[in-house]
Amino acid sequence: MKPNKPCNKELLTLYHYDELAGAEAQNLELHLQHCSACQNDLKEIRKVLAAVPTPHLQLSQAQRRSFAERVSSQAQQRSKSRAGIWAGGLAAAAMVAAILLLRPVDLTVPNAPGQPAMADFEMLEQLELLQDLDLLKDLELLQEMEQWG
Amino acid sequence: MKGSLVMTMDDSCSLPVQSVTEDILLDQARSGHEQAFAQLVAMHSEKIIALAWRLVGQREIAEEIAQEAFLRLYRSLPGFRGESRIGTWLYRTVSRLAIDHLRREKLRRKFFFSRSENSEQPDPLDLVADDRASPQEQLLAREAGRRMQQVLEKLPARQKTVFVLRHMEGMPIREIAATLELKEGTVKAHLHRAVTQFRKEFGETAEANYETE
Ligand SMILES: [Zn+2]
Question: Which end of chain B is flanked by fewer CB atoms within 10 Å, N or C?
Answer without folding.
Answer: C
